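Format notes (please read before filing issues)

Several people have asked whether sequences and structure tokens are stored in separate files. They are not. Every record keeps both together, in the order shown below: the sequence lines, then the token lines. Line labels are part of the format and must not be stripped during preprocessing.
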Amino acid sequence: MVWSGNDGPVTRREIETALGMLANVAPVLQNHDGNILADGEFGQAAYNAGLLFELGGDRRALDFAVQFADKCALLFVFLMWTGKRELVWPTFPAPPDNTTMAQYAGSENGHIIGHLVNPALYILKSRCLWGLVPRAVSGPTAFTSNATYLTRALAFVKAADESIKYFIEWFLDNDLQLIQPNDPRWLLVGDAGNLPGAPMPWNRRMMIVHAFLRLAAAHETLPAYDPVRVWTYDNIARRNVRAFVASLEPSRSKSGALTFVWDYVAGKNKTEESQGIHGYYDIWGTWIAWQRSPWIYGVNDSTGERFANTFQFTINRHNGTFSGLVDGQSIPVKSPGVPGLWGGWSFYSFWFPAWFDTLATANVNIGFNERTWLSIPLLWTKNARALNSTAFWRGEFARGDGLISGTTAPSLTVQEVIRTKIRIGKSSAESLSGSLKSGVRGSPELRRLLGAVSCAVAVLAVR
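Then the structure lines:
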């Protein structure tokens, strides 16, 4: 991908060459191929295609993410270690190659669910796309050739709702903390070192949090509106993100900046790695939780600033490389220093702008080499910096309320909100309260009101 410099707006050449990177990623048509659908090449390309769509609205990027979701919709339903057929994507080798282990599907599947819902969320918030048909995908497909974006989006959300039940049933303790399944059969899957009932490492939790966050946002949109699911998914994700934030240990850099140190897993004195994906997923999951709601998820500006300080003053070695551990140390072979980091670390330059220059310069120097995870997130951050818009930084698709500007959907005026509230009346409002508790969707008029403008929710809540 071409890089036109750290400053200024994203250029057409940067976008076209980023799209070229995506075009070179081959679709995956089978399971049992490691983490390729999660944090591997195809999964990361799907996520980063979404970032590219966010910054420019290019349907070619969206169609790549749709193609990923289309393939995922074909690839699941397997007999698993639970003894049941689960709606998941096994990552370990399948029989007959695998003769010693039960079928494994762990936290990586949460990340796949998140990737599955991402394009659906883009579509559900972009009404101008609903009746259009994406370009034909290569290979097998779960849809007819004339299936619209909206038809596909709703199917993706439905599939994700079914798949997430696997995590709700097997991977939660009584406090809704994500754990390894507390079942002796989990020992049979070959997940080394992660015993039944043990706390799940933070990076793994964030992969599953990704799924809950995206599904919660999808069910805030008008076509998929379901407030009970929104509350359920947010509540589970909230418990885990807040637990991670509470586990962060305040520290200071050598220069005196306020920083954090944290561990790989709760309750163990094992400093997290910054090289590779472990520390990255910790801070990335926290970032997307902040985008959804700083208040619900307990990720405030102070937390963001302290993370950014950690990156710039502790992990950054000030010589174009970064430490292997988040405390600034490196361990040869196991956690060595590295010349670059995943591009999503740059998101925290919202709180410390100089951090973007540090990371972007390092990643450009080592070369992107078709690695979308090093490059496209940097484009997203570059665009956010150029726009200087808090709304863009906060993520226009992190929540399901409203519709993206430029679509054909009419906006509700304040007068409409007030008139609708009056028409609903006290008895209808009481009926609404009961409907929300029982899971009934409520009237189409009220669903339009709540799905179109977030201020309507505040009006109904306070009066």
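For reference, the curators noted about this record: The beta strands are 78-79, 85-86, 249-252, 258-261. Residues 23 and 251 are 43 Å apart (CA to CA).
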